[in-house]
Here is the input.
Amino acid sequence: MSVKFIKETDFNDFVGKMMEARTVVGPVAKKTKFVFGELESVDQLRLDYDVTILPPKKLFFPPRQDLLKFHGQKGTSCICPQPKVLFGVHYYDIKAIDQTDFLFNENNADQNYLANREATTIIGTTIQNVSPRAFFGSVGKNVNPKGHDGFLTRINGGWVFETLTSKGRDLLDFGKFIDADDAQKAEAAKVNTEEKTKSPEKIKAEGDVVAQKVRKSFSEDELWEEFAKDCFSCGSCNIVCPTCYCFDVQDNWNVDQHSGARTRSWDGCLKADFAECSLGQGACENFRETKGSRFRHRIMRKAVYSNEKLGGPACVGCGRCSLSCTADIADPVNVINRIVEG
Ligand code: SF4
Ligand code: SF4
Here is the structure.
């Protein structure tokens, strides 16, 4: 590990040199919002973004991805990772990536995800502007991000760059870095401590109390139906979530009826048919038939079910679900605080 400093006036030159040598994906403006996109020029990079529409997991686990091509009985893997630098990731999104790293490595490890993940260098950065619905300061407070290769903190006159792995250290070659002095390191630590206090929304209890109370509310069907009464079952709250990882797999056949591709696409437990199972002979069963049961499942997944194995809640407080919900009912803060305050 090393802690370096680069002057503000040398920063764009560093990014430009890195872009000449590597594919760099970072936050860029899309109309009034932000997305992670491949940089074509240094000017596009917007490290002052608040939150991106979709989380950076799309780089390792794309919304739609061919898993294999088949021709008769023969299948060919589509795993083809492209090395890249994922630049400018906020700490709550790194925590979400840590969760998907764990989950896609569990049991039958997902080689498609892992190959893309391995080929990516992740550089985190300070949150300069905060999303209006974020609550990252009040969830998983004891869980620190760990899957990144380096972290850039903006301080007076430049940036402190902490490298954590050899992939992160390799990037030092592209810029005029010098060793950070004690004052610069202290300023960076202060900036990163303070940013955690800046999220505007707040869950009013610690994770274990939340887990206990939310689990206890499971059988309150009327409450869950009330929470979900305006739900359109669109699944947007799932799709934008950095910790959701459900997908559907389909075989799509070419017109020759002999070849095709096995493709996976993101899916979401709020969609009406998510839990629909075939019983054969045209019959089916939907084991989460009501809006309330689907809404409850999502909140249980985020606040209760996975806490033990993930070491904290499966929600990192990014606020994307709140921003994306047309009915404005998806915000975990409103749901959890109402349950907690009982
Ligand atoms: S809670 Fe909101 S975003 Fe989620 S499915 Fe319902 S309407 Fe869509
Ligand atoms: S549940 Fe909402 S706030 Fe929590 S991680 Fe998912 S999108 Fe972000």
Observations:
- Residues 2-64+77-195 form one domain.
